[in-house]
Records
---
Amino acid sequence: VQLQASGGGLVQDGGSLRLSCAASQMRVAIYHMGWYRQAPGKQRERVASINTGGTTTYTDSVKGRFIISRDNAENTVYLQMNSLESEDMAVYFCNTVPPKGHYWGQGTLVTVSS
């Protein structure tokens, strides 16, 4: 199984990015999926999730700014990130909820400049 996160980059404070998580050898449609992030010196945290029914949840710090979605035909999970702040700088990963250790990929780096 591979979960390949992409779409990160350098963005100005207040800007937007759209992350993608392309899955192979698994179907995202049948899993509760999540986006996680890990900032330097901090523990990895889940920022958003979407269950098989399409219900979404968000950690408080990103509510109203991030949107998680899933395209079953493309077998991809997305994270639209708006109004980015310096506190959002981290490496972002996707995984199941709860996460499976062997599903962690390289992640994608999001850098926010002020």
---
Amino acid sequence: EVPLVESGGDLVQAGGSLRLSCATSGFRFDDYAIGWYRQAPGKEREGVSCISSSDDSPYYAESVKGRFTISSDNAKNTVYLEMNSLKPEDTAKYYCTAGLNGYLGGCYYFKNGYDRDYWGQGTQVTVSS
């Protein structure tokens, strides 16, 4: 059983929208922070967004604030990343990750580059100009 399975990546025109999904299994959903990274060829990996039941609010990178929204469906153990007003610079492979919540919360560890416990296989998002 694969712990994290992403879907929803596609080719879209600039200004368009996509919704990525991350279906989780095999671990207790509420105990983990679920975060999205992205990586484009030749660029550093970027932490895009994260959500955790241990935190008051989700985390967003400055580059996506106001355009991306992360949400979770606890009944389905699934996290969604709604991406609007997409730009060519959003083109990347998007990875869903899970990391155990700690005493500093959930997404603190994601934001600060701590190792993640689980990684998905990634889903490609391509934004054409």
---
Amino acid sequence: QVQLVESGGGLVQPGGSLRLSCAASGIIFSSNGMGWYRQPAGKQRAWVAGISTGGTAFYADSVKGRFTVSRDNANNTVYLQMNSLKPEDTALYYCKTGGVWGQGTLVTVSS
């Protein structure tokens, strides 16, 4: 059974940084592209970033230059480094592979 577990969310001030992690199990991790999504309260879930099996990264325009996605195939983990955070980055952040979602981790950017 495929399982994704996100961690690393929390409360941070504007301009601050957080690193989210997503640990995967039940899959051949190195053979799967991974994606990060977010859902602000009352809004639809939206794609944020993705990383291919070969390590090529892709970003939504809203986070380009501030967020970095990476993967550690040895530890079956994908990361989302978030810098220069803004209040509008506040959301539940999810990782996804194929049709499987994690449970989400909450990021709140506020002073």
